[in-house]
Amino acid sequence: RDFGVGAVARRAEVFRGDQAGDFAVVAMGNADSIESWDGTNNTTTWTTDATADEAIALATFRDELWRVYRSTAGTFGHIVSKTDNGGAAATWSAGQVITDLANPVTDLATFDNRLIVASERGLFAPTAAETDTEDLTPAFKYQRNADNGLGLHAWYQWLFVPFAGSLFRYDTDGQFVEMGLGTLKDNSSEV
Q: Of 163, 132, 41, 23, whose CA–CA distance to 83 is shortest?
């Protein structure tokens, strides 16, 4: 679907909620509302969110659809919220602040039975009670880059995270290890 001039789909998720079938839900960033598609056909069933809700990224977790968005009114910051009904008029929870406005969020994923939020300054996760935020990579908060975490992806027991111009893996035991091209050793062999 053509979302219009300058519109960029940032992340898509499939979510049913209490709908009769699966919906494709598309995060359009800070400037455009969430789009959803009910799968009936490619032209007439795309719907812009009825309440103009926005999302930087989306993820499904525990039978819920989660979004992260930037709030500059009311509660300031980057906020995660969830819905269990989905569709074109989802009812979102009030949510919780994950990072302040000075630390932009870049992506969202689920890994190791947790919701993981990537930002320019590292990885964060809401606590199990969803009342506080845990900084998963505190040693990296000064390696700020606008592309940090963009495109993070869970695969088996690892979460692959583009970070600081390289590729890192976040393990289920909480280790954040570089594994990208920056780890290649020089080969000074004459052979």
A: 23
